[in-house]
Amino acid sequence: DDIPEMKIAIRDLQMGGKRLGAWSWQSKVVGQELTLEDLKGQVPGGTITGRLRWNRDPLSGAQSSILTGKISGSGFHDFYESWTTNRAALTSKSFEVDTGVFWSGTPMDFDWANLSGRMAFKMEKGTFRETGPSTDLFKIFGVLNTDALTRRLALDFSDLYERGLAYDQVEGRASIQEGVVRFESPLAIQAPSSAFKITGTANLATDDIDMRMVVVLPVTKNLPLAALLVGAPQVGGALFLIDKLLGDPLSRLTSATYTIKGTMSEPEIKLEQIFENNQPEQPAGGSP
To answer: What is the pTM of this model?
Structure first.
């Protein structure tokens, strides 16, 4: 059916019992393509700006949709929970997401298995939270607060409490190919007393994950390296001597590499390797 060109402004959009704020856009039609230009939504917690194109091939009748835009705001959890009944996997005091994605069919035919494109995101000052099952991109963050991971890492971290794993900044860039997310640059997480770097893939359609995670943390009297190695004494083919490690000066940084496989709801986390960054030794003979 023909869709006329028009300007739309909605003061208070409500859908499924959710109040989605104020929206506006201008529709344009060129041949078999409908474009929503100057798309803007003022949603609780954030603002959406972008453009949506819906194209139909005049010969085959095949349809496709392309969405480009930016989401930014002062509270990712508020923004996320405006759209869904699910609890957000993380909170933030500020966030920014840039995306360009496309899928076959009409805008209403959106499906993870049919989605391709790229996205980049940055979030600041928040926590990762325990969540129930979800069906969106941000369920990837739920891996960072599963029981399996927190049991392994929540030793004496000063930033791990019932609220979840606190972070200062989260940043990443990913490509999406038919629902498979691949981090083009590592998903980097800076926490008050630790840092995380995640690479690999996650299939949003099947829930499968194949990732590697590097955890960097200070080794202090409250967090001996020996505690990190409980249940995994062999790392990189070498047997770690716990008594020797406990006797060393505990004032260095240590990184641990993990593999994360299985599914996002039930990840299998395995310690692979430990690296130590010892204090540099003083040159023999003292200062010149």
So the answer is: 0.73
